[in-house]
Amino acid sequence: MSMKLVDIQAPITYDMADFESTFRTSMRTNVMLLDKIMHYIVKRKGKQMRPMFVFLSANLTGKTNEVTHRGAALIELLHTATLVHDDVVDDSNYRRGFFSVNALWKNKIAVLVGDYLLSKGLLLAIENEDFHSLKIVSKAVKEMSEGELLQIEKARKLDITEEVYFDVIRQKTASLIASCCAVGVASTTDDKNLIDKAYQFGQDVGIAFQIKDDLFDYGAQDIGKPVGIDIKEKKMTLPLIYALTEASKKQQRHIRNLIKNKSHKREAVKEVIAFVKASSGLDYTQKKMNEYLNKALTAIEGFPASESRESLIGLLHYTISRKK
Fold first, then answer.
1. Three-state DSSP state, 4
2. Which residue of 6, 117, 161, 275 has the fewest C-beta atoms within 10 A of its own C-beta?
3. Is the CB of residue 199 less than 8 Å from the CB of residue 295?
């Protein structure tokens, strides 16, 4: 099933348009330098996947309302704060083809901007007493930080297991999409069972999404992302983890040595990619991605049939079949 983004957004067209303006307003400030940076951040926004998950999920159990809109803004503010800080941590000069905040205004300002965005989100929730939304989103930010640190800790030895890999991506990527779905449903119902089901759906979508991203690194399809970036950055992803478990001790040592000491060389990266492909690492990873895709479909089918439910299923397929 393949839906275009415009069809997926059909049930929430008004909500998305309204979100654009309210989010812009929520970022206003009297400090000129800060206001300039806020304008820049708003201008380079991507496909707005997170608000889409919030609004569509809210429609599963009711109708979008002010709590839903504030929940979407809260997630976007806190997520943008983590991205600004991430670019400092990664010493990254670009994000989505634009210069990063730290590239244009230096690290000191970028860290302060991240803090500002975080506080804006917290105040938005507290001033409106949206404590439930705040609890869900704060938990996600905590998990995202833990996942990132767990990955850094394990990356040094290059001995990450499949179990740890799933822990990392559940926290780093899936917790945010899970919180989008939970915040949406929590804005239209108090039913804990339904909120948990929405969280589970979002978590499974997030895991499938990240596995898809890991497949991109091996040029599994015609894609926009350059091949071998994860290997160059010494990131242990599922295709490589599986391939190493299938290899002999000697082969494991050789591949780990290539990644540790020669990942800046094109030939070494090509050898690692060939090793993973020969060890059925990509087939295994594809199978795992489909498992999570099916888990997500099972979770969403626990909600009544509606246009928004169809759009969420469409959004799930869209994130999995994307080319970059």
1. coil
2. 6
3. no
CA 198 to chain centre: 16
C-alpha to C-alpha distances, 108 to 115, 169, 237, nearest whole angstrom: 11, 29, 32
What type of residue is 140? A
Total residue length of the chain: 324
What distance in Å separates the CA atoms of residue 311 and residue 78, rounded to the nearest whole number? 25
One digit per residue, pLDDT tens: the chain, 324 residues?
A: 567 888 888 889 899 888 887 787 777 787 888 888 777 777 666 678 899 999 999 999 999 999 999 999 999 888 888 887 777 776 666 665 666 677 677 777 888 888 988 998 899 899 999 999 999 999 999 999 899 888 888 777 777 889 999 999 999 889 999 999 999 999 999 999 999 999 999 999 999 999 998 888 777 555 445 577 777 777 788 998 999 888 888 888 888 888 878 777 888 888 888 888 888 889 999 999 999 999 999 999 989 999 999 999 998 988 887 655
The model's pTM = 0.88
Return the CATH fold of 5-321.
Answer: Farnesyl Diphosphate Synthase (1.10.600)
How much is the CA Rg of the chain, to the nearest whole Å?
A: 20
How many Cβ atoms are within 10 Å of 35's Cβ, its own excluded? 13
Domain ranges of the chain: 5-321
